[in-house]
Amino acid sequence: MTTVKTSKDPQISDYLVRVMTNVGLSKNQACVYLACLKLGNASIWDISETSGVKRTTCYVVINDLVSKGIASVGGDSKKAMYSVISPNEFIFSFKNKQNQLVESVSELNALISKTYSRPHLRMFEGIDGVEQAYKLTLNISEGNEILIYGNPDVVINYQGMIDNYLRQRVKDGIKVRAILPDTLLAREVIGKDKEQLRETRLLSKNTFDQQTEINILPDSIIYIAHSENKPFATVIENSTLAREEKGRFEILWSMAKLEDV
């Protein structure tokens, strides 16, 4: 039985809900947070009507947000009134948590077993899932690069998503080396290499007709199937496998040709 109704306020768009779930809120929490933003100081009844979340569930959700420091409760004993922090305050809180995580990376890595590392497998389905997989590459540590071999057709099939991803990657200063089959579209891609912090080499399409895009990171490999009716991505988190895949990439890289397009 679902706890989210279909009658939420039209201003609480699916896009905004997805933005909030991407930063750690559940779908119900996102709907309630956005409803509170719209309403200001509000009762559970009004929050439920605006968010589309059932009133009984609203009590649980708003209490969760209170415990996270995202919402607060006021009013009197007869009628509780709820409000939430502003988007700017939310960003500040989120960045603080990010900074704490970054500062703790060395301690967290020290917990990883050095004797045996079993691969961790994750699956992402649909365009939204593939977009999530791409965003994982933006977490690469400073000084490392992304190694890619794949098919440039993704630029056409998912242009909006790829454009957003490329802007963020370039903004973050993350460099890429890519191997593509030698096609007209691949040569167009090479024309944007400098502005997109990428170095691309080509292999003959007769011998390298790659259908699955592969992104190689220092400790993981991301396989993205764009050619399927429903695209999907598989992420394998294992530094040993990633090193072996990087070795294969370097062999192909040495065989590929650098075109001056």
Commentary on this structure:
- With 261 residues, the protein is an alpha+beta fold.
- Mean pLDDT is 86; it is low at 1-6.
- The chain starts with 13 loop residues before the first helix and ends in a 6-residue tail after the last helix.
- The chain has two domains: 14-89, Arc Repressor Mutant, subunit A; 120-255, 2-Layer Sandwich (Endonuclease, Chain A).
- It has helices spanning 14-21, 27-39, 44-51, 55-67, 87-103, 105-110, 126-136, 154-157, 159-171, 184-190, 239-255, and strands at residues 71-75, 80-84, 120-125, 146-149, 176-181, 198-203, 212-217, 220-225, 232-237.
- α2 packs across α3 (44-51).
Can you say what the CATH homologous superfamily of the largest domain is?
Answer: Endonuclease Chain A
Order of strands across the main sheet: 3-9-8-7-4-5-6
Give helix and strand order, one letter per element, not per position: HHHHEEHHEHEHHEHEEEEH
- Overall pLDDT, averaged? 86
Question: What profile does the largest beta sheet have?
Answer: 7 strands, mixed
Radius of gyration: 23 Å
The poorly predicted ranges are 1-6
In short:
The chain has 261 residues and is of the alpha+beta class.
Fold blueprint:
Elements: H1 14-21, H2 27-39, H3 44-51, H4 55-67, E1 71-75, E2 80-84, H5 87-103, H6 105-110, E3 120-125, H7 126-136, E4 146-149, H8 154-157, H9 159-171, E5 176-181, H10 184-190, E6 198-203, E7 212-217, E8 220-225, E9 232-237, H11 239-255
Parallel strand pairs: 4-5, 5-6
Antiparallel strand pairs: 1-2, 3-9, 4-7, 7-8, 8-9
Helix pairs in contact: 1-2, 2-3, 2-4
